[in-house]
Amino acid sequence: MTQDYDKRPDDLRIDNLKIDDLRRAFRRQGLRLTPQKVTVWRLFADSTKGLTLPEACRALQEYAIGQATVYRVVNSLCELGFLLHIHGPNGEHRYLAGHSGHVHHLICRTCGHVREVTDCDLSTLEKLLAAQTGFAVEGHHLEFYGQCPRCTPLPG
Amino acid sequence: MTQDYDKRPDDLRIDNLKIDDLRRAFRRQGLRLTPQKVTVWRLFADSTKGLTLPEACRALQEYAIGQATVYRVVNSLCELGFLLHIHGPNGEHRYLAGHSGHVHHLICRTCGHVREVTDCDLSTLEKLLAAQTGFAVEGHHLEFYGQCPRCTPLPG
DNA sequence: CACCTTTATGATAATTTTTCTCAATGACTC
DNA sequence: GAGTCATTGAGAAAAATTATCATAAAGGTG
Ligand SMILES: [Zn+2]
Ligand SMILES: [Zn+2]
Ligand SMILES: [Zn+2]
Ligand SMILES: [Zn+2]
Q: Rounded to whole angstroms, how far apart are CA atoms B98 and B117?
């Protein structure tokens, strides 16, 4: 039976459509979709500010998922493009469930709250750089940082 | 005598002017400039692709600098803005001696070679984001990645 | 559905990285 | 030159990451 995901505690909600995306993506690499992978994915998909690996390990202990598995799954999810890394308030690596397509992030330096930024056109600059440097520019990583509304000190 | 830096092996060259900048910056925080700090700085100032902390520790063993010191100094240099972090080919954190001012980087995904990018105007976008999201946008971090000329597979 | 092949998992150990502690050293001020 | 106080490095300790390997189970097959 492939469908025992329902047994999983559902305090980690996510649209089930994505599960099929996951399965397809893993399959394509000859990998298998397991309940553990789904649970790991759900944890991240549900997080608004991303998690560090140790944080994820601690959170997933509750579901009896070993840390070796967490490390492996997070790596896979990264390689498959389901997770991106961003930097938290202290510069620490955090993994964030990413939507598909070209997306960047606006990160609060105080509380770590993350907001997506879809407005970005650096393609012109990329072409210019390629011409100037001889690099074959393949992409970019862009993070904005500042203070989210809740953390912004009141003006005046 | 404050000037026993010359005793240091000079296979790590750097313009001496910067040393005074360092001293001033440290002083401003009530910190002292020591030969160890200078040596650490020189190592980074001389690196073209940046170093990870462990790499720096290994390299500085030769100069009998303890790892505790390396960690401390790198942190200070970061806070003072002399070092920036970038991501190497495998996503690992690397510390790179940064020039002052607004600078980004173009990083080879194969060999890690880094090239500076000074051409960037995201201020317009920053203002737009601030208006749209309510964030007080303070800055951004931008990395381009691709293949440097030497690593680019020949076309055709 | 039962079977089989192959990947995945998790307990454990081993490494590596990072942080602490503290006595001794040395930078900088007066 | 003397005194103050940040700095240093050895070493211990903690934390994070990776490696092993016997066992469990996913997914395909008939
Ligand atoms: Zn905030
Ligand atoms: Zn972009
Ligand atoms: Zn990073
Ligand atoms: Zn290269």
A: 12
